[in-house]
Write a structure and sequence with these properties.
alpha+beta, 4-stranded mixed beta sheet, about 10% strand
Length: about 300
């Protein structure tokens, strides 16, 4: 009886469209896929030279070629699901097409996977700004408020922050439109995977052993990252200026790059980290201009000050 059931199962064609979506890619492949696609979410907008559809089609062709291996098909076998239209794009006449990766976390193994790549048309910002309905205006206000909050909180997320780190980060939070858009521009699209992986163990082992005094004097993690990426920022920020004058940030970055291939986990198992992104920081830090936003003093800051 068991044999009969087995034969029946083997002869039954599997309907893949009804199978749960979940592909567990290791961190390197997941990063390669997102890099090939242009990020977790990327939009393609119609302009005078080419349509959104043509831009998306070109990106997909390049991404498919970059993520096809001997063991897998395009996109490492991750499913591509357009909203409508052809297999390559959701709608040829759309003004803006969004391409997104749909991630998922496997709680059993505490690892990140991916469910699919999706493409769909979206309205451009001008459509919302031109809308006369109160609902559209309320939506725009809500989105702006949420994005401003996310940008402001970007410097508060490090798990290893001390109270002093938190106080410095809060003081440096952007408070004006110019501050917010500048901070958003400086922090978006930065490949910080290697830095994020190495910083805490590097700080708590190498720096703590080599220079305990330096460990206690380090500014917040976001400030360290910007100082490593941009010499101009390091010179402008009072919290990082002395370190830049001593060439500290470049030295620490070089040390992290050197130790990355030798990195091990808590159990001593080899877990090398690719330092390519940090090498790019080092190569470009003298040319990259990151602005240090000086806080504008208000009445509360000036209270009690006499001349």
């Amino acid at each position: 009886m068991a044999k009969t059931v087995k034969n029946e199962v083997e002869s039954t064609e599997v309907d893949k469209s009804k199978q749960p979506l979940f592909i567990l890619l290791d961190k390197a492949l997941l990063k390669n896929l997102r890099t090939a696609l242009g990020g977790d979410r990327v939009s393609f907008v119609t302009d005078d030279e080419s349509s959104a559809y043509e831009k998306l089609e070109k990106k997909l062709e390049l991404a498919a070629a970059a993520t096809t291996t001997e063991e897998s098909g395009p996109f490492y076998d991750v499913a591509f699901v357009p909203r409508m239209g052809t297999e390559k794009a959701p709608l040829e006449s759309a003004n803006t097409i969004m391409l997104s990766t749909v991630g998922v976390r496997d709680k059993k193994t505490s690892t990140n996977g991916i469910k699919a790549i999706v493409a769909y048309e979206v309205p451009v910002a001008a459509n919302f700004l031109a809308a006369e309905s109160e609902a559209a205006q309320a939506f725009v206000e809500k989105v702006i408020e949420r994005e401003c909050s996310d940008v402001a909180f970007s410097g508060l997320r490090a798990a290893d922050m001390t109270l002093a780190d938190m106080e410095r980060a809060v003081k440096a939070m952007p408070t004006t439109v110019d501050d917010i858009v500048t901070t958003s521009r400086e922090t978006s699209g930065v490949d910080s995977d290697a830095f994020d992986t190495l910083w805490v163990p590097f700080k708590n082992s190498v720096i703590k052993v080599k220079s305990p005094a330096l460990l206690n004097a380090l500014p917040s993690k976001p400030e360290v990252q910007k100082a490593m990426r941009s010499a101009s920022y390091a010179k402008a920020n009072p919290a990082t200026r002395a370190g830049e004058e001593a060439n500290l940030w470049a030295k620490l970055l070089k040390a992290m790059i050197e130790i990355a291939p030798k990195f091990t986990d808590d159990k001593g198992n080899p877990t090398p980290v690719d330092p390519a992104s940090m090498q790019d920081w080092l190569d470009e830090r003298n040319e990259l201009e990151l602005q240090f936003a000086v806080k504008t003093l208000d009445d509360a800051d000036l209270a009690g000050i006499e001349f």
